[in-house]
Structures are given as C-alpha cells and as structure tokens.
Amino acid sequence: MKNSSKTKIIATIGPASWDKNILEEMFDNGMEVARINASFADKAEVERVTKTLREVSPRIAIMLDTQGTKIRVVGIDKEIHIEEKVSLSSANQSVPNSIKISYPDLHDTVTRNTKILLDDGNIKLNVEEIKGSEIICSVLQPGTLKPNKTVNIPEIDLNFPIFTEKDEIDIRTAIENKLDFICVSFVRNAQDILYARELVKGSNLKIIAKIENRAGLENFDEILAKADGIMIARGDLGVETPLENIPILQKQMIFKCRSVGKPVIVATQMLESMRENINPTRAEVSDVANSVMDGADALMLSAESSTGKHPVQAVKTMTQIAKNTENVMQLTTIYGRTSCSREVDEICKSVAILSESIPLKGIVVISDQEGTIGSITRHRPNVPIWSISSSISRIRQDLIYRGVKTYHIKDLPNDRDESAILAIQTIYTHGELDLSDKIAIISGSSIRNKDSDIILELVTIKDILNQ
User: Fold this and answer.
1) H-type helices in 185-341, by residue range?
2) Residue 241, exposed/middle/buried by CB under 10 A (0-12, 13-18, 19+)?
C-alpha cells in the first residue's frame, strides 16, 4: 500500500532519479507530484522524463518549473577568488578582477552604494563607481565564485520580461505533453500571471506563482487573486529579503492562501543535508514539521531528489515527518471567500466541522466546481477528502491539495445518485471504507438552473452498497 501523508510531497526529478525503478520507489513512498526544473532541462529531457513518469503511474501530477530571467556570471570557466575590488560589465574586459554578467544595462540601473550579491549572497559587493558600462565594486564579503552563479540586486526592480524565449518553448512543451502545472519564476505582479494565462490558453495547465523577489512580496495579494496556487521559493527569497523575515513571511503567505482556498507549496532546502547524508539534521526536521503545522498543502524537494545521493530516502523521510506531525494536528476553520459561492463555502466549512463532531470517515466530492475541493481542504479536516472525477487531469491537479485523495471514474454517470453510488463502491473496493462507516457526500444538484449547484448528504456505507 502506498505510503503517503496528507501534506503532499513534490519531488524534483534529475540525474539521481531518472531511473524508472527509482521513480517507482519515490512514488510508493509518498511522491504525489513530480517537478521538472527547466533551468536544467531541455525539450528532449522534459519529454523523456514525462514519458517515464506516465509509465510509472498516470496518477502522478507533473509540474514544469520555468527558468525565468536571472542575471548570471558568464565568461569564466573556473572558480575565482573575490577579495578586495572587482568590476562587473556585460562587455568582455581584459582588466584584472573583471567579471562579465548577462544583463547588458546594469550600469544604467545601479547607483553608488547599491549592494550586489553573487552566488545567492555568499559574496557581497558595494558599488563605488560607474565608468561607462563598467561597475566598480568594493568587496564587503569575500568568497570563491564559480561559473554561472547568480547575481542579485535586492534594492532594485530590474526591467526583465517575465518569460524568456526558452520559457515559452518550455511552456509549449508542457502543453504538448499534457503536463498538469507550470510554475512561473520571479513573478512580480498580476500582469505576469495574466501573460502566462495567454500562453496556456486552451490547455488544462494550472499556474503556480513562485514568490521569490521583493516585487512578488509587495504585490502578493494581487498575484494570489490571479494564480491557481503559490510556491514560497525560499532560496531567492532569502537573498532578496532578510533571512530572519522568511519564517514570518512563510506563515503569512500560507494563511492568505488558505483563506481563499488555493494550494500553497513550501520549497527550498527543506532536507538539504540529505543531498549527501542518509539522515537529515534536527533543524531540517523541525523546518518540515513547522511547515506542516503552518498549514502548507505541499512540501518540495529540490536537489535532495534531483542530484542528491538518497532521493528515495529523502521522499520517505519527508513523508514520515509530515505524517508524524499531522497526527497531533486539529481541524482549524478559516474565514475568507473562495472562488465558490457563499453558500458553497458555508456548506464546505460545515462539513469540515461535522467530520469531527459526528464523526465522519471521510468526505466524498463529486462536483464540477473546481473551487469546492479548495473550499473544504482549507479548513484542514483530519479525515480524507476523496475527489471523484471523469477527468484524469482534474484528479492529478487535485492531488496538490492537503488531505485530498483522488479517484478517476472514466464513465461517471450524469445521474447524481448513480454517480454517488459508483464513487462509494470504488472507494470501498480500494479498502478505504467499512460497511459501518458514515461519510459525507458533496455533489452537484440534479435540479437544473439552480443558483447554488450543491447537495450535502450524510450516508452510511452499508445503506449505499445494499441498494
């Protein structure tokens, strides 16, 4: 039986996890969503990894993470030590301690005393003088710089296009291969999400906005309103804002996502030490557990599962931490409006409360309203939420929500009663229900032209199966 937690595990796929047998073990140990990082994958790799994942299980949701626009160090093929003075330019320089960067107009953007960070903040520079296209800096924090490392300027909003030519090719590849999610990197405002919507028009792709810069934080509410979900990308975010702010920002963003019923992912360095070690540090275990207690829908592994030595163990460890934490959590109702009607939101809150007061074994959702799942799960009930759909893409996309299990019924009857009976028979057949169990069923009404298309019914399994 699959080992899984209510909090969903997203695992990045890379050289350490390309093998089909490894992917099968990761799936069996809790991976619900597989992430392909387009920063390190071309079209051929996306297609190859997708094919392998679909062979492992058509139930695995696949997420493509766009590379986005980022300034990088270019033109060096070996590491160099940065110690006292250094100059940055987009032009080739022959002078000592000169570094070429990928952003041609940086000299027109920065001013004296602007702080520039190299390699995720491991090297810190201060702009002292600008001569033509050359930016001369003093070194506030020395270090060793390796090829292709990042350049961050937290104080300045750079005028980047939201998608590069590669990003647009990658998104077309995601559409062609019927992936489930795209993650938009370095989102700054709602317009970035609207532009992404134009690119995915006509497909089933859901859009996850990555919050990883200052502009994304400042415009979070408008981004949340337009995106299908949020990823808290703590790597670049930890460079763009003081590190001590990250735990507070994480809690605030998770709360806002829950209040509107949209999924939220916590990402970056969750089990970083497991890239090399078979066990995580105590601090990492606490980080994962606290993210679960904060109310995250999903947790993400990056290098731990893509290039690390123990990808299966990393998934298994994260699943176990999440399950252990969930055992002490209680239902926490939350207020706010989702994309559903007020009546649907109130019914979903009521059924979440009923799941403990009656108690219920679980909640079955048979609804064409996509927001219904988010409206229920945002209250974090401790019972399973079973999403039933005739759409395979729908059941994969619902997997990203906390506590949601999905069942695909290809020929789901149009009749409400028939579909409810078939749904319960399917769940019962998979060993998740006993005859004495009581469940709630939320489904669309059979009455046409109703303003609120929803029915809530409480039933005992034996009464359904004896019909």
Assistant:
1) 190-200, 214-218, 220-226, 234-240, 246-260, 282-294, 303-306, 311-326
2) middle
CA distance 385 to 379: 12
Nearest CA among 379, 378, 337 for reference residue 354: 379
Sign of the CA dihedral 347, 353, 358, 361? positive
pLDDT digits (tens, 9 = 90+) for 118-174: 988 889 999 999 998 899 999 999 999 988 888 989 888 787 888 989 999 999 999
Cis amide leading into 58 (omega within 30): no
Strand partners of residue 157: none
Q: How far apart are CA 66 and CA 188, in angstroms?
A: 15
CA–CA gap between residue 319 and residue 453 (Å, rounded): 36
Between the alpha carbon of residue 376 and those of residues 222, 355, 379, 442, the distances in Å are 23, 11, 6, 10
What distance in Å separates the CA atoms of residue 374 and residue 258, rounded to the nearest whole number? 8
Can you say whether residue 367 is alpha, beta or left, with left for phi > 0 and alpha for psi between -120 and 50 degrees?
A: beta
Write phi, then psi, for 328 (nearest 5 degrees): -110, 5
Could you tell me whether strands 455-460 and 438-443 are parallel, antiparallel, or unpaired per DSSP bridges?
Answer: antiparallel
pLDDT in tens, 38-81: 988 899 999 999 999 999 999 999 999 999 888 888 878 888 89
* Rounded Cα–Cα distance for residues 320 and 24 (Å): 18
Say how far apart CA 242 and CA 252 lie, in whole Å.
Answer: 16
CA atoms 99, 69, 239, 280: torsion sign: negative
The whole-number pLDDT of residue 446 equals 62
Q: Please tell me the predicted confidence (pLDDT) of residue 455.
A: 87
Q: What is the DSSP letter of 146?
A: P
**Residue 134: beta bridge partners?**
131
| pLDDT of amino acid 444 | 77
Residue ranges in the chain modelled with pLDDT below 50: none
Q: Which two tokens stand for residue 279?
A: 């066990």
- For residue 449, report the phi and psi dihedrals to the nearest 5 degrees: 65, 25
Which residue bears the tokens 């799960």? 377
Q: Which two tokens stand for residue 126?
A: 């201060």
What are residue 182's DSSP bridge partners? Answer: 64, 207
> Coil, strand or helix: which one is 351?
helix
Bridge-partner residues for 442, per DSSP?
365, 456
Contacts of 334 (CB under 8 A, 6+ apart): 255, 258, 259, 378, 379
- Name the H helices within 295-335: 303-306, 311-326
Domains of the chain: 8-68+162-325 (3.20.20.60), 71-152 (2.40.33.10), 342-465 (3.40.1380.20)
> In whole angstroms, how far apart are CA 408 and each of 51, 179, 203, 298, 357?
20, 17, 19, 21, 29
Distance separating alpha carbons of residues 38 and 53, to the nearest angstrom: 16
